[in-house]
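Q: What does the predicted 3D structure of GMC oxidoreductase look like?
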Amino acid sequence: MGQSQWDYDKLKDCFTRSEKSLNRDEDHRGKDRPWLNGTLSDYASRVLRPMTRTAEHHAHNVPSISLAAFDIATDQHMRRSSLFSVYLPSDLLRSRPNLNISANTIATRIVFDAGTQKLRVNGARRKVVLCCGALATPQPPMLSGIGPEDHLKKHGVKTVVHSFGVGSNLRSLFSSPFVHTVIFLPTCLLSSVGTIMPYGASDLDISKPENVPDIQIKLIPVSGIDGPSEVTSGVCTFMVCLLRPKSVGSVRLARADSCE
């Protein structure tokens, strides 16, 4: 995460202080904070329990192989419990004169003051944080002159800081629902006949990059395919997610227009 001292033990307290877990009484889950989190209903648990028992029986002491329930950010009434509603309630907004929320507003660009030796953001004492999602966040900096210089010149944007990394090196966790028979390829985990390969102590060390899982299998107790499924058939879906993609992509400006 950029800092060698940012390990799980040091960040654990931040996690527990942020939430209240409605269904799970565990040491790493919060118990008395405003952000409510739960797990899938018993409807899903009836499908998950046999898989959990199987995993615990065959891999009861393997830290690098895990199976966990799927969390959902809803309250006890199954209403969405977002960070916005929890940490920015209406009473807080009315009591903070220095907090301003502009609804239905488009941020066009960041204006810099180049009159001093070091660039600073006009209107902010310390910093500006852009949180527009992976695809939309690169747009405001590039419209403001921060980004690949050749690309900015192409759209008539004056370069303030040449930074090729803006909008580059994007990775996506590709997921695909598994509902049909596929070609089986033997791996270091499964043999050619489908049995789990023997492993040694070095294979269980989760601090080694080579032991980080390649895929995540999310069990969905309904059809994960677009379109309605037959109501007379029982369906569950294995949603396979690629955790360590090799390919990268980029986002660039189509026009020098903040509305596009």
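A (community wiki): The structure tokens above were generated from the sequence. The chain has a mean pLDDT of 76. The chain has seven helices and ten strands.
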